[in-house]
Amino acid sequence: QVQLVESGGGLVQPGESLRLSCAATGSIGRIYAMGWYRQTPGKQRELVARIGNGDSTNYADSVKGRFTISRDNAKNTVYLQMNSLKPEDTAVYYCNAAIPPRNYWGQGTQVTVSS
Fold it and tell me: How far apart, in Å, do the first and last CA atoms of the chain sit?
C-alpha cells in the first residue's frame, strides 16, 4: 500500500514563499515521476510542476521562474518551493507519483495567498 503524505501548505501574503513536501511511504517500487497539481472550486485539476526519473522538469507557464520542483530519491520525497506567491496561486495542491502500474495521489494541502 503506497501513501503520499503532504505537508507545508498554509496562509501567506502576496510576495511571500512556501515550501510543500510530499513523501511516498509503503511498498514502493521504482518511482518514475512525481509532481504537483492544483485545483480550485469549479475548475479542473491542473499541472503545476513535474519531475521525471532523470530529474527532467516541466512547469505550468503561470509558475515558471517562481516555483521550483525537486526530489530526494533516497527519501522518496518531492518538494515544491513556491516564491513570489500571488493570490491566483490559491488552491488545493495535490502531490502525484507515478509508480507503475498506477498513479497515486495525496490528500491535498491548502495554499491561500491573501493580504
Answer: 40
CA distances from 62 to 26, 29, 48, 81, 88 (A): 33, 32, 8, 14, 10
Looking up cell 530529474 gives 55
Q: pLDDT tens-digit profile of 21-47?
A: 999 998 787 888 999 999 999 999 999
Output the pLDDT for position 29: 78
Report the C-alpha gap between 14 and 106 in whole angstroms.
26
- Torsion-angle region of residue 55: left (phi > 0), alpha (psi -120 to 50) or beta? left
pLDDT for residue 85 is more than 90:
yes
